[in-house]
Amino acid sequence: MQRERVAALPGLPIDADGPIFAEPWQAQAFALTLKLCEAGHFTWAEWVQALSAVLREAPSDDGSSYYTHWLAALERLCISKSLTESHALDARAHAWAEAYRTTPHGHPVELKQVSS
Amino acid sequence: MSHDHEHDHDHSHDHGHDHGQDVPSDTALRVKALESLLIEKGLVDPAALDAIVDTYENKIGPRNGARIVARAWTDPDYKARLMGDATAAIAEMGYTGAQGEHMVVVENTPEVHNLVVCTLCSCYPWPVLGLPPVWYKSSAYRSRAVIEPRRVLSEFGVAVADDVAVRVWDSTAEIRYLVLPERPAGTDGMDAEALATLVTRDAMVGVAKVAGPAAKEGA
Questions:
Q1: What DSSP character marks residue A64?
Q2: Cβ-based contacts of A29 with chain B (< 8 Å)
Q3: What pLDDT, on a 0 to 100 scale, did the predictor assign at position A89?
Q4: What was the ipTM of the complex prediction?
Q5: For residues B181 and B167, what is the distance between their CA atoms, to the nearest angstrom?
Q6: How far is B33 from chain A (nearest CA, A)?
Q7: What is the H or E stretch that residue B116 is in?
Q8: Which residue in A72, B10, B43, B100 is a FRET match for B116, CA 20 to 30 A apart?
Q9: B25 touching A, CB under 8 A?
């Protein structure tokens, strides 16, 4: 069993095995899942089923891609529950990328206009 | 705030784009996209999201579980309640929340060693142990813990004698397991608070034993 220590990143929570969340987006994806479930948009059993399905399709890994699979499962479940749509997600991700590219240093990154 | 670029040394910023900010990874952008769309639709509350991130990053960890174990070691009545209805006994200590709704505690004894896994994904009792470590989520652990638990245990450094039974508990969306490890020798005079410092996350998953204070100091 590999138990390599993950190098700690500044400001990120760690335990004996390294960061609990390796990057902030992982914590955000985690929180989104929890809140959507609490709000009744899907049950926890449905979530576990969605995550298990993605993990089954994924090649074996050491656990470091876990939250990438988590996000894929969450997107899939949100789309199947009609909470959002695939093309809206793509368009919004592009809009965020553009916002980062065009927002000057030192300013908060905000979407110029909502286009969905 | 001035942001003078110094050009007398190498720096690794990518100046290939406009004078904007570094664009996050595609994955991070996908999370932002999903989050912002759901917030706009009123499906999630951004403040509630922040609270969850804060809670799981900073406030919950295996210390909750360690306090439960230490109390069970020192308070026979509590232990009886814990073994009878773990969910209620854990809630009694104030530890409730997502993924801790249906808890079962399994006790290690000289005859039985318990090991917890989630073969399907990574179901884990968050309110008492925090979030699972990377190895718990690995496909190797998820498959091998069931197939060859003794070998997995030996790789974690746990020697289980041949006459000790190994029981593997597969967590599900409905039931989460917590291992009550054996109280180490040489701890007779210690109170629950001191004992709790000896109890590790790994011991409560079943991939470690709790070392006594002398062993801990000598480590």
A1: T
A2: 31, 34
A3: 95
A4: 0.79
A5: 13
A6: 5
A7: strand B112-117
A8: A72
A9: yes
> Nearest-5° angle of CA B3, CA B8, CA B14?
60
DSSP B178-211: EEEPPPPTT-TT--HHHHHTT--HHHHHTSS-PP
pLDDT in tens, A1-25: 222 222 222 233 445 444 467 777 8
- Quick one: which of B175, B172, B168 has its CA closest to B120? B172
Please list, in sequence order, all residues whose beta carbon lies within 8 angstroms of the beta carbon of residue A30, skipping any fewer than 6 positions away: A21, A67, A70, B52, B53, B56, B131
Residue B176's H or E segment, with its range, is strand B176-180
Q: What is the pLDDT of residues B150-173, one digit of tens each?
A: 999 999 999 999 999 999 999 887
Name which residue leads in pLDDT, B154 or A112. Answer: B154
Hey, which residues does B104 pair with through a beta bridge? Answer: B177
Q: For B145-181, give one letter per residue: b (16+ CB within 10 A) or e.
A: beeebeebbebbebebeeeeebebbebbbebbbbbbb
Which pLDDT value is given to residue B10? 38
User: Which residues lie closer than 8 Å to A60 by C-beta, 6 or more apart?
Assistant: B139, B140
Question: B2 pLDDT band (50/70/90 cuts)?
Answer: very low
Burial pattern B106-116, b for ≥16 Cβ within 10 A else e, equals bebeeeebbbb
Tokens of B176: 């989460």
Judge whether B82 and B90 are in contact, CB under 8 Å: yes
B132 in Cβ contact with B162 (< 8 Å): no
**Length in residues, chain A:** 116
Residue A70 identity (one-letter amino acid): W
- Residue B68 corresponds to which tokens in the numbers above? 């439960």
**Distance in Å, alpha carbon of A73 to nearest chain B alpha carbon:** 12
A 9-68 near B (Cβ less than 8 A): 12-13, 15-18, 20-21, 23-25, 27-32, 34-39, 41, 44-45, 47-49, 51-52, 55, 60-64, 66, 68
